[in-house]
Amino acid sequence: MTTAPHALAGDAAALGRAAGRRGRLGAFPLLALSAGAGLLLVAVADALARTGHPHSSLPFWLGIIAILFPAAMRMAGEEATSAERVSTVVLVALSLYAVKVLRDPFAFTFGDELAHLHNVTEILRRGDIFGTNSILPITPRYPGLESTAGALTALGGTSPFAAGLLLIAAARVTLLLALYLFYERLVGSARVAGIAALVYAATPTFVYFSAQFSYESLALPLASVAVLALLRWMTAQQRGERRGWALVVVLCAAAVIPTHHITSYAFVGFLLAVSVLHLVLRGRRARGAPWALTAVVGAMTVAWLMFVAGRTVGYLSPVLTDAVNHVVDTIRRESGTRTLFKSDSGAESTPPAERLVALLAVAVLASAVLAGVRIVWRHWRRDPLVVLLSIGAVAYLGTFPLRFIPAAWETASRASGFLIIGVALLAGLAAVWLLERRPRLRSLVAAGVVLVVAGGVISGWPASLRQGRPLRVTADGHRIEPPGVAAARWSRAALGTGRRFAAEDADARLLVIDGRQVAYQGTNPDFNTILQAPALDSWMVPLLRSRRIPFVLTDRRSISSDNIAGYFFDVGTPSLLPASSTAKFDLPRVDRLYDSGDIVVFDVRGLW
Amino acid sequence: MSARRNGDLVLVAGLAVLCALVCGLLSATPAGVRALPAIVLVLALPGYALTAALIPPAALRGAERLVLAVALSIGATISATLVLHVLSIRLAGGAWATALALVTIAAAAVAAARGHGRPLPPWPLHGVRALEVLALTGALLLAGGAFALGLTPLPAPKDTRGSTALWVVPQGSDSVEIGVRSDQLRTATYTVDLLLGGRRTHTYGPLRLVPGARWTVRAQTGGPPAPVVEAILHLASAPAAEFRHVILRNGRVVTPAPVTAAAVRCPPSHPLLGASGCYRVVVRGSRAFRFYRSGAKVPIR
After folding, report:
1. Which pLDDT tens digit goes with each residue over B139-171?
2. Which residue in A28, A77, A94, B261 has a CA-CA distance of 20 to 30 Å to A524?
3. Cα of A218 to nearest chain B Cα, Å
4. Does B109 share its domain with B45?
């Protein structure tokens, strides 16, 4: 096959032909026009969803197709120049990010986004990093995202929200472009690289979760640039150039480490695995194993963990041990499995047609991985990077059973962002192998790319939250606020800032952002039970007292415990907690300060 | 080292100084003018200069230079922030602008010394056809239209649940603030009953509130000791039913918050009063710092 190393010459020859026929920019202007139309369709879908019209899915999916299909067609062909492919990757990265932004163009509404937004405002207010965060206490110890957003805010005079959008847009472009360049250098084919970069967007978390203003959304792109630099270091011939690339790897790692814990550990693991595979595949005498880089980056990571972010161990270990324990319990049949395409509460369900698309996407990806492994075995079985990515791709398929296990599905979903880098490479290799034998199947390959990306969107984000929901709405020509936002703003105006609250997940985040309060939520310690139980237990008041929490905000709407959906207006008949969950605080020594029906704020200092 | 041969480095260093001046050092510059220079200074210039310092230009393609410029710029911003923190320099526009401009100029100087400069490339869109420009303009207009539609507040769905809030907050020891905010989908009319010690003493209203409107009143309650104060909201359409209910049983005045430093004013007679409010002095080893009530830490030189 011509996707052997250094097949770039064929692409270069196509450059002149393509430029002559289509103009200097090739088909890029047409792809941009199609992507623009796609975004307009997505915006229409969001507007329909926000105003309660059914069938908003149709324009949404048409918009996704308009963005992806022409790009995939162009990538699958031979005509496009490398520059046009680069432009197309940038276009797709920005367009798919715009799909997420169009869902909520007014404000951040993902749970983690609000926690990180608080860190930015704290940095700007205090003039220093390492503040406190009552929602995600670990995040101030990883200030990379927030310090960059803070610099953009302070220098540009924009809002932290605008700075965050801009920063993540730059990160999205960097991620896909770095992967494209990495694939292109690795296998020597711009065609393989183009398809692989698009297939990477099939990561279930790509369009929504990984596009949020969160530390992982910045760390992964920085790590992908480090991986590109590592490849250049491994293949550089001149000593000076090699030293330069090594410094780029270290500088990128130095940015990843204070930005996100898991990504920095994954990068150290990646370096170690490359070193070991290099030893295994090429022997001790072969140059190019990154042992020294592994040691340097590993030492930096451990130093950050020891001297700055020691509490990371306590933060991550429950998540991982919980996942492992549930896997063991499920294998022993001591705990039940998770139902695919349904939320844990059972309230959310994916439409049957979308389930079919998601399952087909898995089948296509699995087939592509198997075909890709065969190609790798023939051409690259001595290349440590390609072999490592292939192992990652097979491991990605191995994470599918974890999606049936309640406590492990999130771990599997988060791992997919790393492992799918290998899946995308093998899919690109398999697609080009197929196209070289059956050039007429180009449309089918492009449709396959759209299918796997659509499958990722479906399996990665609930159907009801894909399009916009009512947040900033008008009634009789006036703007009204969702009840959680109104309560948070009232708290700031009436009580001042910096008050300590216990509240449901979504309400707590709104209290932190819109109310500038210190709000606690969740199960560790167990504020959730305090808020939702029908009666006060003996341990509850001591917990409130020990945490010195004077204010409790109860919210009967079940949606308020959902940190993705809880910020919007309720539409239709809501699911409510029993009235006793609120009434239990109506005690002789408790003040009932605020009542908006479902939301009530109590001053419980009398109970201390 | 000629300026022409190092055209890109001279341009980058010059832009860094200009952007730093516009964004950080001339704080009176309007936000709209500062946005683009800020993006360039934080997301492009330091990384471009660092890339040039580390990698020979012949070893890089344009797209590689782009991703390295963005990634290393972000890395430089993060590292600069950590250094500023270690040096106990307050993080603000001026500090960031100076640090990033210094990084850019230093890296550009190293790059020039290593002979990694490049002449300025020709205008990249030279030779682009009119139809291509038209298509790109159309794409931008379509994307702009999408965002214009997305940013337009739309009517709420018909079955949206509106809400109405009633509150009571102590104001000193002998009065309270009572308020109502209506976030219903239509104009609604309410009355509010004020009860002191269980007896209705006043009825406010009818209050006709359009969606999003609020009404407040300050009511004298007598005391101290403050009696039990209740406010009950009724819908005009169902006056007998209690729609919302708040009650102050203890009448506690909300005390100053522990961590809202920005909101706390220093007494004019405070012995340590600076431009950012009052502070305390903390000595750590051979260094001393001003700790402001806002949490800011400023070294004393």
Report:
1. 999 999 999 999 998 888 888 889 999 999 988
2. B261
3. 9
4. yes
